[in-house]
Amino acid sequence: MANTLKLPVGIENFEEIRKLGFYYIDKTRLIEQLLQGWGKVTLFTRPRRFGKTLNMSMLKSFFEIGMDKSLFDGLYISGNKVLCDEHMGKYPVIFLSFKGVDGLDFITARRMLCAILKDELDRHYYLKTSDVLTDEDRILFTKMLHGQDDNIEDSIRMLSKLLYKHYGQKVVILIDEYDVPLDKAFQNGYYKEMVSLIRGLFGQALKTNEFLQ
Fold first, then answer.
1. Number of neighbouring beta carbons within 10 Å of residue 172
2. Alpha carbon distance, N-terminus to C-terminus of the chain
């Protein structure tokens, strides 16, 4: 009897699916489409449970410096050698999911958002001892890491700046479930405060960010 691939029920991590041999519907043509129509910011609008999170995870696995290139063996994108040579594993990546920002009040939701940002800072902990960064840069990163910098609106942009200085390469920023904080805020009566926070956060990270690829 032929081996049957396992179905990745509830698994939205591209690397896990590929390494553990789960069934995967090849969506890597999306990478080619994005790069051929490369823009500073791309918004994915799809219904929930449509695979956006898995696609975001796939993009992270493709672009991030130090990624495992074998994850894409046999997939569509591997056939475009020129594109892979130019972009695969070439960028520092900031990856955030706001899925868990569902506080019943603004203070709680803001705290949840800060925790998500801290998790991503932890993922780039090596910046704390980077020989490329200045003492001032490392002190700033440490303050951000320990929540001593209250300027949350500038946190993504500042992290992208530090990553750019460390790698000498502009940054890819991936934000999943970006609408969840606003939806929960609308349901629980603090929409105005959350709109102000998200507008500041995204405005500096995506609109006026010179370190964005």
1. 22
2. 48
Co-location of 48 and 114 in the same domain? no
Are residues 75 and 36 part of one domain?
yes
Residue pLDDT, tens place only, 55-89: 999 999 999 999 999 999 999 999 999 999 999 99
Q: Do 77 and 113 have their domain in common?
A: no
For residues 91 and 57, what is the distance between their CA atoms, to the nearest angstrom? 15
Question: Tokens standing for 14?
Answer: 């591209």
User: CA–CA separation, 69 vs 54, rounded Å?
Assistant: 17
Token pair for residue 166?
């460390």
Q: Of 90, 124, 158, which residue constitutes the final position of a domain?
A: 90
For residues 84 and 104, state if they share a domain: no
Global pTM? 0.90
| Span of 1-10, 106-115, 121-130, 135-144 with lowest mean pLDDT | 1-10
Query: Which of 17, 16, 19, 42 shows the shortest CA–CA distance to 30?
Result: 42
Give CA–CA dist 157/171, Å, rounded: 10
Short-list 56, 70, 40, 77, CA closest to 171: 40
Q: Based on the domain organization, do 29 and 99 belong to the same domain?
A: no
What are phi and psi for residue 176, nearest 5 degrees?
-100, 150
